[in-house]
Amino acid sequence: MLNSPLFLSLASVFSLIGLGLVCFAISTDNWTEIDVNRKEILNAFKREPELSLRLQNAFNHNFLFFSRNVGIFNLCFPNTVPQDIGSFNKMGSPCIWNNEFMVPESKKEHFTTNETYRHYAAEGTIVAYVLGIVFVVFSFIVGLFGCWNRSKRCIMVTGILLMIAGLFMSLAMLMWHYVAYAERYTLDMEPYYRSWEPVSFRPVPMHPLGPRKC
């Protein structure tokens, strides 16, 4: 009963829907939204000239002072773009590549323990997603042969492959949430939240993993 063609058909339909949603999510750049009130920062500069002298260059060039949408591979700017940042256009929005997955070994040597955990969790997120997609595609191939040959063994293997794919997808989401938690609560170096200048964010209602808008 559990390896019947009906269950295989249902699994295939829902797997295709899930795979499409996962691929769509990976291609987007709205996993985290950060809203920076640049007008308020300018007002703070007027009130405190010393602050203006210290942060004026960063205000124009450092992406931390700009509203941005963060995805797995890209960091996009919905409004103003930092000067000389080398952005490219993606679906009408200026973006830059997220270079956190290509960290030089010389820089890794100076990572703290928490930075190392966060870095490998971020890389593991990508690996787990890719493996999940590979197992889904492989299960479709095995399932196709199972339907064609009416093989109960192939149908059972298809179900097992889909469960493994689901485990990898779940692992990817767990690691992504760990990365978000580490960036919000444990890392205190640039470019993470605890290193931001107080003038660059304002108190907002808290998301379970930190402020959605800062």
UniProtKB/TrEMBL annotation:
Coiled coil: none annotated. The keyword Transcription does not apply. Its main location: membrane. It is found in: Membrane. It holds the Pfam family Claudin_2. InterPro entries: PMP22/EMP/MP20/Claudin. It is a multi-pass membrane protein. GO terms for cellular component: membrane. Keywords: Membrane, Transmembrane, Transmembrane helix. The chain crosses the membrane at residues 126-148, 160-179. PANTHER family: LD36024P. This is Uncharacterized protein.
